[in-house]
Amino acid sequence: MLSILEQVNQFLWGFPLLALLAGAHLFFTVKLKFPQKYTLKAIRLSVTPEEGNGSGLSGFAALATTLAATLGTGNIIGVSTAVAVGGPGALFWCWITGILGMATCYAECYLSVLFGVRKKDGTCVGGPMYVLEKGLHSRPLGMVYAACVILAAFGVGCTTQSSAITEAVHTVFPVSSHLIGILAAVIAGLVILGGVRSIGTFCSRMVPALGFFYIICCLYLLFLNRDVLLPSCSLILESALSPRAAAGGFIGSTVQSAARYGIARGLFTNEAGIGTAAIAAASSGTRDPRRQGLISMTAVFWDTVVMCAITGLVIISNILKNPESITGYSSASLTTAAFTFLPGGAAILSFSLVAFALTTLIGWCYYGERAAEYLFGGQSLVSYHLCYIVMIYIGAVLPMDLVWSVTDLINALMVFPSCLALFALQKKIRI
User: Fold this and answer.
1) 172 CB burial (10 A radius; 0-12, 13-18, 19+)
2) Which residues contact 62 (CB under 8 A, 6 or more apart)?
3) Which pLDDT value is given to residue 249?
4) 85 CB-near residues (< 8 Å, 6+ apart)
């Protein structure tokens, strides 16, 4: 079964999904006349309170919830693998994918706010399932998408993240996996059971602090490697655009491999086109889809354009300056090798991985919560929360190979209805 799933995923996450998502990014970038030019305005809007936004989350809280679900192991471990296998040029293509992906994120968040629903208590709900039902008049497609979100929440948002927490802790302390699972379930459960406001508040406080802390650590490492920064940037561009392979610690660095792994990592880490960011965007109290679309598209900017780029630059500059430091490290551990030059770097990186994984647990719980409410009504939320908390513990103690494969398949299945809605309703999107 695992072998079959891996073959299916290899096919889906090969040309079909890369072509669909890359095509969506290019299409909406051109159609919306490059909404990326509003990035600075969007960042200002994200920290500017909006009056009269009802009982929903603030625009910033919705953005923080999105970032909580996307920032994490993909930015740290995923970039490491992409650079090792695809070469330094993979970072360039990852960065380009993030820039173009901002347009798709704007489009899906715009539609989700446009077709969102305000409940009796004043809170707002939405997402691709509501867009599919109200915009395309297809509740069955909405139900399929919502079911995939719930399964993905238990997978990528829950068990895989608690497994990542266990692995990160084990690199520093030989603590029982059962104890780690219980602690992670209790900490996350306290936030989750507090409801949407509790999740929004937690994400609004934790995500900026974690992101700032991680960036400061990376900037310190780049300062240590400042004499090779220009050669690193030159190598990135050369291996991204030149057919000649680059040397020095990189498995593959042809244009084809750089583009393949860089684009794939960029598409996977920021989730633009999958539609999950739109679920958080619709929870904001605003009824201005343009405003929230602009705010939410900065999640892709921070996730891919900033976090992935700075992580990749740390890895590449470390390999150029300290090529011997990567000896004995796997392709997924090149970030760990770079952090060894930071005082207490191993513990700091492990802490960052644990903290990011914990915020991802909580952010994805909200996505699954909205999907469960769409399918089964508000009375299902208590059962959903309890199952989610139990799955946190299970993920910390069980092997994850099968879960990762199932999760990759579910993510792929979410892309098709999400992109269908985007293209079918593209005339309704304004900038």
Assistant:
1) middle
2) 56, 200, 280, 281, 283, 284, 292, 295, 296
3) 47
4) 251, 252, 257, 261, 331
Q: Minimal CA–CA distance to 270: which of 21, 13, 80?
A: 21
Categorise residue 196: left if φ over 0, alpha if ψ from -120 to 50, beta otherwise.
alpha
127: left (phi over 0), alpha (psi -120 to 50) or beta: left
- Structure-token pair, residue 371: 């999907």
CB atoms < 10 A from the CB of 377, how many? Answer: 9
CA distance 51 to 318: 47
d(CA 407, CA 395): 13
CA atoms within a 13 Å half-sphere pointing along the CA-CB vector of 142: 24
R_g (Cα) of the chain, nearest Å: 20
d(CA 356, CA 363): 10
> pLDDT digit string (tens) for 28-59?
999 999 999 999 999 998 888 766 555 556 66
User: Letter for the amino acid at 148?
Assistant: C
Antiparallel, parallel or unpaired: β 117-118 and 124-125: antiparallel
Q: Please state the φ and ψ torsions of residue 366, each to the nearest 5 degrees.
A: -65, -40
Contact 302, 212 (CB under 8 A): no
Closest CA to 243 of 263, 222, 258, 262: 258
What pLDDT, on a 0 to 100 scale, did the predictor assign at position 150? 92
Strands (E), 112-241: 117-118, 124-125
Measure CA of the first residue to CA of the last residue in the chain; give whole Å: 45
Q: Following CA atoms 85, 88, 89, 91 in sequence, which dihedral angle do they give, to the nearest 10 degrees?
A: 90
Q: Are 39 and 300 in contact (CB under 8 A)?
A: no
Quote the CA–CA distance of 37 and 20 in Å, as a whole number.
Answer: 24
Of residues 51 and 304, which shows the higher confidence score? Answer: 304
Cα angle: 37, vertex 63, 408; to 5 degrees: 95
User: Which of 70, 398, 109, 389 has its CA nearest to residue 275?
Assistant: 109
